[in-house]
Design goal:
The chain has 348 residues and is an alpha+beta fold. The protein has two domains: 213 residues, Endonuclease III, domain 1, CATH 1.10.340.30; 105 residues, Alpha-Beta Complex (Nucleoside Triphosphate Pyrophosphohydrolase). Helices cover 39% and strands 11% of the residues. The chain has 14 helices and six strands. The strands form two sheets. A three-stranded mixed sheet has the order 1-5-4, with helices on one face. The protein has a three-stranded antiparallel sheet with strand order 3-2-6. Helix 9 packs across helix 10 and helix 9 packs across helix 11. It starts with 18 loop residues before the first helix and ends with a helix.
């Protein structure tokens, strides 16, 4: 990125860097450059079902990953009533591979509350549903209801931190960044405004290598004026990610099918189909310790290890394989509906 001129303006000293100027320039950019997405409608309220479904899927997941899942869900369950009637296991299977599986359980539970009733008419009503927190509730209120809600995700935090060169470090700076974003919200085009901020962060004000020459706020941006916008937001040092260990059992039937089990609701990947495992703990497992948790007596062979990184810890699984015929607490299937960590095991 070229270094800015020493005379580059900052929001604090440029007289016309008002809320209205910032809003007008960003909305004009959004009208020209904003993304076309299957759940998005510009210039008015979006469909509440589509907006809600997309926002749940987009929690901690990229637009590129969500697109195909969103389309498949709409084909299978085009209405909230159809989703509510679906067996939970079928919804979880359709979610497999998207990650953060509590979202799917909450989505199904919320659909059952919403079916046959009007969609909530305000942010508080959406917040009362399973799986909907402050960001998701605000996003649905703005995009689907055209309410002047303050929609703040990591993209918006980054944009605000750069626009105002906020020196406080995350996560302590979150409240201040939210306040800065809230000062720009008005009842005029609130859905487009929320999506414009998201697109600015995703397409231009990126975490690395921001595309400042394309930014409609370059002339207002204090981070750009300082010559190092990519250094914002400031962050506290990251904690070391904990390591956990386990063993997993890949049981093959005579026809090559996998022996699958249902994971407990309160466990990680709760309610999903999976492969039998030991508990996951801080210490490694000896062979004898691991095989005490095997689903069936068999000639187990250790065939390798699989490593998978979750949000809060990294997991290393020793993989044991055998051909056997378990008869209880599971069923025969394939890897298509398994979470990513178990797909890795199946593919080993």
């Amino acid at each position: 990125m070229p270094a800015p001129s020493p005379k580059s303006p900052r929001p604090v000293d440029k007289p016309d860097a008002t809320r209205e100027n910032l809003r007008k320039s960003l909305l004009s950019w959004y009208d020209r450059e904003g993304r076309t997405l299957p759940w998005r409608r510009r210039g008015g309220p979006g469909d509440p079902y589509r907006v809600w479904l997309s926002e749940i899927m987009l929690q901690q997941t990229t637009v590129a990953a969500v697109g195909p899942y969103f389309e498949r869900f709409l084909q299978k369950w085009p209405t909230v009533e159809a989703l509510a009637r679906a067996p939970r296991e079928e919804v979880l299977a359709a979610w497999a591979g998207l990650g953060y599986y509590a979202r799917a359980r909450n989505l199904h539970a919320a659909a059952q509350k919403l079916a046959g009733a009007p969609f909530p008419s305000d942010e508080a009503g959406w917040r009362a549903l399973p799986g909907i927190g402050p960001y998701t509730g605000a996003a649905i209120a703005a995009i689907a209801l055209e309410r002047a809600s303050n929609v703040v995700d990591a993209n918006v935090e980054r944009v605000m931190a750069r626009l105002y060169a906020v020196e406080a470090r995350l996560p302590l700076a979150k409240a201040h960044l939210r306040q800065l974003a809230g000062a720009l919200v008005t009842p005029k085009r609130p859905g487009d405004w929320a999506q414009a901020l998201m697109d600015l962060g995703a397409l231009v004000c990126r975490p690395r290598a921001p595309r400042c020459t394309l930014c409609p706020w370059r002339g207002f941006c204090a981070g750009y004026a300082k010559g190092a916008p990519e250094t914002y937001p400031r962050r506290a040092a990251k904690a070391v990610r904990p390591q956990r260990h386990g063993a997993v059992f890949r049981v093959l039937g005579e026809d090559g099918a996998l022996w699958l089990v249902r994971r407990p609701d309160r466990a990680l990947l709760g309610g999903m189909a999976g492969l039998p495992t030991t508990p996951w703990r801080g210490q490694t497992w000896t062979r004898a310790q691991a095989l005490a948790h095997a689903p069936v007596r068999a000639k187990w062979k250790r065939i390798g290890t699989v490593r998978h990184v979750f949000t809060h810890f990294a997991l290393t699984l020793q993989v044991y394989a055998a051909r056997a015929q378990p008869t209880e607490n599971g069923w025969w299937g394939d890897a298509s509906a398994l979470p990513s960590v178990f797909r890795k095991v199946a593919a080993l």
